[in-house]
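User: Quick sanity check before I run a bigger batch. Here is a single chain. Can you write out its predicted 3D structure?
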Amino acid sequence: MAWYVFALVDQVPSGAAGKGLTGALSLRKVAGAFLVVERRADVPPLAFSTLKKHQDVVSRLAKHVPAILPVRFGTLLEPAGLEEAVDERDEEIAEAFDLVRGRVQFTWRAGGGRRLEAGGRKREPRFEQPKSGAEYLRRAARAASPAPPATFRPLRVKVAPLAVRQRYQPWTATLPEAVYHLVAKSDVRRYNAAAAALRKASPLLAVTGPFPPYAFAPEIL
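Assistant: Done. Predicted structure follows.
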C-alpha cells in the first residue's frame, strides 16, 4: 500500500501524531527531515471536505514543530518513491526549513477579479521583441519573480516591512491573484494590527491567515 504525504517537518512533532484523512499518521525519516504520511491505497477525491481535512492536518502539525513544508494535496507515493523523491535534496530542504522556521503565512487578495476591457473581453498583453540581450534578461527576471501590480501598492508601506519574504502570485486558470507574506510568529500581533488599519484605508484589499507557509514551500514531492 502506498503513502499519502501531508508535509515535511524538521523534527518529530510534540505530542501524538494524530489522525490523517481516514487513518493514523506516521513519520518517515528522509534526508534531514521527516515525512508525515498516512497509509492509503488511492488518491483521495478532490472534494471540499477532503481538502479541508488535508489542510486541518497540516495546520495541526504546524503547531507542534518549528518548521513545516506543506505538500500539495493528492501526493501519493510508493515506499521506494518517498526516498527517491527527496534523494540528494537535503541542502534544498534545509534551506527551505531555515526560511519558514518559526514563521507563518498571510495571504492578500484584491476585490474586483481580473481586469477586463469594455464589453468584458480579456485584456491580452502586447508582446514587443526585446531590443538587446540585456533587455531580454531583465524581462526573464521579471517573469520569474513578477512584481505586484498597483492594486497591492498599499502593502509596501503598511505591512510589507513586517514580512520576512513576499511572493506575488499572478492570476492563473486555477489560482487567484494574491500576495503572500511570510511573517515571524513573534510579529503576528503587530502584523494583524497593521493589516486591520490597512484594510480600513483600502477596503478592496482582503487578508487571511495566519496559515502554514504553503506559498513558500518548494515543490519537493
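The chain has two domains: 2-100, 103-216.

User: Great, the batch can go ahead then.
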